[in-house]
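[step 3/7] fold_predict: job queued, chain A
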Amino acid sequence: MIDSQQASAALHEINDVVRRVRQSQIYQTASFIIMIWGGIVFAGYIANYTWPRQGYTIWTVTNLVGLIISVAVGFGINLRSGAGNFPIRSLISFLLIGLFGAYCSIMLGHFGPHQMIVFWALYGMLFYALAGIWFGYAFIVIAACTTALTLISYAYAGPAFLLWMAVVHGGGLVLGGLWMRRI
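[step 4/7] structure written:
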């Protein structure tokens, strides 16, 4: 027989294992989505550098592709886990975030092209930092590093701004996703 202290200690250990497994599952899923977004964003910056006059179209398509892939991954995870339902809350969350960002950047901000890119990069990293509060420090590290490098690029990159952002934002997300897989 075990006494109440031993039982309490055993339950604490079980809860700790459950917490670590849950965080590991979140990191595995998130790292996959983050790496996909990194590749998509990298391609968006390169396309915008190549065809600068098509920036709004490029970024609209880039974000829609990322949204569709993210929701599809969520749906696939739900199917695998047995939930089998469409991740409507995720879709609505992405749409609300996008609509609010579009309203702020278009209606309120009156940003130029570089300011618009910086706004969206920083706005996206805000949500990574918020995810870090709930799901683990890796999100916060990715957000802080990407934010710092984005601000540096805005101040110093000059004509290579979009190429720098491809590496910093797109490449940073890919590296962050790979790092999350190792945690």
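[step 5/7] annotate
The chain has a mean pLDDT of 85.
The CA atoms of residues 67 and 94 lie 7 Å apart.
exit 0
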